Amino acid sequence: MPLLAGTSTSRSLFSPSAVAAPRRTAIAPPPLVFRRRSPVAGALLFLSLGAVAGCVLPLARVTVHSSTSLYVLKISSVRTLSSVQMEAASTTVPSIVVYVTVPNREAGKKLAGSIISEKLAACVNIVPGAESVYWWEGKVQSDAEELLIIKTRESLLDALTEHVKANHEYDVPEVIALPIQGGNLKYLEWLKNSTREN
């Protein structure tokens, strides 16, 4: 416990005799206390936790307990955006985004056209100007490429992969799938309706 300057060790800061002591010259600062934060600080904390948790906090039951010195954030029943949207909308199906790189614009347009014609995807974006640096045949390679961003059903990944392998110029074409966690419900319905079932 902090002591008054010039007092014996038996008199503490909070004893009546210490307060009345005439020889007091300085008071040690009180220990650090976590004080109640402003609503803005609480909101920033909440938003930063949401970013760390993958933006699932708005879908959770959140209870904030505050006292004079502490905030406690209790999160329960956390559900991802995809589970909420897919459950609420039986008009959609589990969907994915697939990345495929191609050597040039012509190859990209040809492959994208055949994917759409076969109804293996609802949409293919062709993104120019990709520079790929990769390990191949024992050394670092670097090539200008274009990136295909393909939106399709999860159930079509195997068929799409086989189609890309059969129609691509590379020996080992890139085919990487990422899940679509949620999004515009109308777009996801359109994606389902614009692709074949299997």
From TrEMBL:
<dbReference type="GO" id="GO:0009507">
    <property type="term" value="C:chloroplast"/>
</dbReference>
<keyword id="KW-0934">Plastid</keyword>
<dbReference type="InterPro" id="IPR004323">
    <property type="entry name" value="Ion_tolerance_CutA"/>
</dbReference>
<dbReference type="InterPro" id="IPR011322">
    <property type="entry name" value="N-reg_PII-like_a/b"/>
</dbReference>
<dbReference type="GO" id="GO:0010038">
    <property type="term" value="P:response to metal ion"/>
</dbReference>
<protein>
    <submittedName>
        <fullName>Protein CutA 1, chloroplastic</fullName>
    </submittedName>
</protein>
<keyword id="KW-0809">Transit peptide</keyword>
<keyword id="KW-0150">Chloroplast</keyword>
<keyword id="KW-0472">Membrane</keyword>
<dbReference type="InterPro" id="IPR015867">
    <property type="entry name" value="N-reg_PII/ATP_PRibTrfase_C"/>
</dbReference>
<keyword id="KW-1133">Transmembrane helix</keyword>
<dbReference type="Pfam" id="PF03091">
    <property type="entry name" value="CutA1"/>
</dbReference>
<feature type="transmembrane region" description="Helical">
    <location>
        <begin position="44"/>
        <end position="64"/>
    </location>
</feature>
<keyword id="KW-0812">Transmembrane</keyword>
<comment type="similarity">
    <text>Belongs to the CutA family.</text>
</comment>
<dbReference type="GO" id="GO:0005507">
    <property type="term" value="F:copper ion binding"/>
</dbReference>
